[in-house]
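Person: Please comment on this record:
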Amino acid sequence: MMPGLRIIGTGARAGSRRVSNADLCTRLDSSDEWIRTRTGICARHLAGPDERVEDLAAAAARQALDRAAIAPSSISLVIVATFSPAGRMPAVATGLVGALGLGEGVLAFDLNGACTGFVQALDCARSFLATRPAGQRALVVGAEIISHWVDWSDRGTAVLFGDGAGALIVEQAPTLYVAQFGVRTQPEALTVQPDATGQSVVRMDGQAIFRFALRQVPALIRDLTDQAGLAPDGVSHFILHQANGRILDKVAQHLDLPKDRFYLNIGELGNTSAASVPLALDQWITEKPPVGGEKVVLAGFGAGLTWGGIIFEWS
């Protein structure tokens, strides 16, 4: 069994502007009922005019550091999962090193895995820590400002996305840990591509994503639990990418599990891509502190099409 992870601090920051469905429908041909019944979303938080991905990431990371109550010098790795940085370089992660006062001897990079990105980044952090002396920590952040890439006249995407960042500080632990990832090449299903004016915008085949998620996510969870020597019913909590409330409900049904094991915060935050899993994890831990020994699944799925999941034991 590969070495596991212990989460010692979490942080979160949503975009500063709360936009309800009613607010959105003043400029979009839709209704609150249409959005809620199809997505489970009631509101989303969008970045203010002066907020950058770097700002949201730094705010979430500072909160995680405060809660972990550790010396910043014990952080030896920083990974930021994002597809929406303000510029092509430098990496958001390198800016965090300076903003947080982590010192110079830190490995820092960004990872663009879209909605699977945070789980990919967390597994990279586990692999890194497994090769380092005990006592070192990693800061893993998911941060997105998707509103910059939304076509606000496209009802199929405009109602879905929000902005935010979530952060974890992790260290090695001698506990259960299993990870699995995959790719089904279908890039056209969810992309950011230039439109006729040259402006890059999100384009999505919603039905293709829905079918993919309902086929792949239950299979991923079954594979993870099989490898861990558990049944899906042996998992106490599922923190999945908050893509769509209906998808999460259907996944629970496919696995014949109670819906209350699947944490849901998409109603207030929308789909925040790489930020959704750490935002949900932070809120879940705050509301319902987990108990040592409980088994937890984190999973992401989306653009690529990609998927990835981790099952670990809370300690």
User: Anything to note?
Assistant: The two ends are 16 Å apart (CA to CA).
